[in-house]
Amino acid sequence: MYRRVKNRLPITLSHSVLAVRLGRGGVCQLIINMYRRDLEKKQLAWCKKASFPRDLPNISLIFIFVNEALSVILRSVHSAVNHTPAHLLKEIILVDDYSDDVIFGCVPEQLKGPLEDYVNKRYPGMVKIVRNQKREGLIRARIEGWKAASSEVTGFFDAHVEFTPSWAEPVLIRIKEDHKRIILPSIDNIKHETFELERYENSGHGYNWELWCMYINPPKQWWDDGDTSAPIRTPAMIGCSFVVNREYFGHLGLLDSGMDVYGGENIELGIKVWLCGGSMEVLPCSRVAHIARMKKPYHSNIASSTRRNALRVAEVWMDQFKSQVYLAWNIPMENHGIDYGDISQRVALRKSLHCKNFEWYLDNVYPEMRRYNNTLFYGEIRSSKATHLCMDQGEKVNHTATLHPCHGMGPQLGRYTKEGHFFLGALGSTGDETRCLMDDQVSNFPQLLNCDKVSNTRLTTWHFSQNESIINRATGRCLEVIQANVYFGHSLVLQTCSGQRWNIKNTMKQ
Ligand code: UDP
Ligand code: MN
Fold first, then answer.
1. % of the chain with per-residue pLDDT over 90
2. Are residues 181 and 35 in the same domain?
């Protein structure tokens, strides 16, 4: 998963395979057949019509890497030099976030002397290399790159990208017009096995309440305006490619340096720039392709860092909506045992920049975001009769809720709402993963389906409060657990109430 849930349809372009990368299972990644790729033909006609002024702000391109193949870094550098006008490209900064390559046994020395020798010979005076003395994570690595930059505008990229011709000019025009715009070149995909280029649809960058980012449909207004080259308003960024005025980025407090490893910073910057007087947009005319890889060469479980970083974003920026992040990760709002570090400086930053509140952002910038603030209780749902079992989505095809040993993952994320609905399942990106509980009056088993499609809403509403019975409002039947030869010795049924009680792990605090 890209931090970064990829969920959009690619537009496949004709292409020739220009490079082959051996799988990571081998001793080392190798790029053979290293051509410079000419992506010009793949640009859309309307973008080529634009003629660009010469007088634009200059830019520093900052690439961060850790345990990256040398040839991949060089592809990024070559395409940057080839496709950014020389008078606008002030410098290239390569930040090595302490490559050690313990995971893949690649040759880390390649990223030291050979990298330096190569770029200094090929592009004398152009490339600065910054070496972190310990692994800082992508957030602080980008900040280190920013510190080394000296141009008017800074562009931040993963070190496995390729630039298209004229990618830079539209971006710099937009920033010259308004230095408070953060500009995201549109991202295309480079397939990691074949280096084939795959064009992605024009889209904005959104996220779910776990703060995993994903591509989203551009706003309705953008479609209505009918100009597919127009900037696309976006609530946040995927993060592998963004361009911002250097001083303005500093004024905004850069990225949150209290975040570790990966994830969350891309959402924080989007929220922050909108709330504190700027904006963020995707530019269809500016295209950068990125390798979406299957495995991270630095960390086996990035979710633990992303979760921690997400809590920082929630606590600093989301006001009463922070509860949605705790809900999505299925953790209590207090005594959760996750040390998300000191946020006082970020809270002070928000205050000093006189930023708006999060509700304004949801209303105006991210109206597509589903709100779950009708939640009363959430988490695993347990019966007093069998406390080691939890209510679970079970097999989707069966359309019934079941019991399963408790694990607290997505299928067991329960939610009871003010309206009296019970939901089960991860919130996910669209809410589709979640289904809701119904007594269909016929079956002895509780049905699990999309309650929006049920006309008799009393069948989908239930009386419940913590440690009480779950009683259907239409039929008066209770949800109870009986001994059975299925589902770990128990079965979940609807029957005449016998006084069984239920508990949902967490209480929502707004
Ligand atoms: N990165 C880093 N330090 C880390 C983790 C990641 O510098 O501890 C860099 C990594 O080399 C890459 C960028 O952060 O340039 C984003 O990571 P990655 O490409 O693995 O994420 P993805 O694009 O797959 O979401
Ligand atoms: Mn990447």
1. 78
2. yes
What pTM value is reported for the model?
Answer: 0.90
Residue 380 lies in a domain: yes
Residue 389: the pLDDT is 95
Residues 29 and 134 in one domain: yes
CA-nearest residue for atom 12, ligand 1, is: 158
Most ligand 1 atoms within 8 A of CB, residue of 135, 184, 240 to mutate: 240
Residue 158 sits at the vertex; the CA angle it makes with 155 and 159, to the nearest 5 degrees, is 105
CA distance 4 to 205: 9
Residue 261 CA: nearest ligand 1 atom is 8
* Residue-wise pLDDT tens digits, 51-75: 889 999 999 999 999 999 999 999 9
Where does a domain end: 291, 325, 349?
A: 291
User: Do 108 and 229 belong together in one domain?
Assistant: yes
Find out whether 178 and 261 touch, Cβ atoms under 8 Å. no
Q: What is the largest CA-CA distance in the chain?
A: 82
pLDDT tops 90 at residue 396: no
Q: How far is the CA of 39 from the centre of ligand 1 (A)?
A: 24
User: Which residue, of 263, 291, 319, is where some domain finishes?
Assistant: 291
> At 104, which CATH number?
3.90.550.10
- pLDDT band, residue 397 (cuts 50/70/90): confident
Name the residue range of residue 443's domain.
Answer: 375-507
Question: Is 220 part of a structural domain of the chain?
Answer: yes
Decide if 368 is inside a domain. no
Task: Give the pLDDT of residue 108.
Answer: 72
* pLDDT tens string 402-444: 999 999 999 999 999 999 999 999 987 766 678 999 999 999 9
Sign of CA pseudo-dihedral 64, 68, 72, 73: positive
Residue 384 belongs to a domain with what CATH number? 2.80.10.50
Ligand 1 neighbours (beta carbon < 6 A)? 2-4, 64-66, 68, 97, 135, 137-138, 141, 158-159, 240, 261-262, 293, 296, 298
Q: Are 89 and 195 within one domain? A: yes
pLDDT band at 6 (very low <50, low <70, confident <90, very high): very low
274 with 417, same domain? no
Provide the CA 352 distance to its chain's centre, in angstroms: 27
What confidence tens digit (pLDDT) does each residue in 152-172 have?
999 999 999 999 999 999 999
377-408: b or e for each residue (b if 16 or more CB lie within 10 Å)?
bbbbbbbebbeebbbbbbeeeebbbbbbebee
3-state helix, strand, coil in the chain (%, to 5): 25, 25, 45
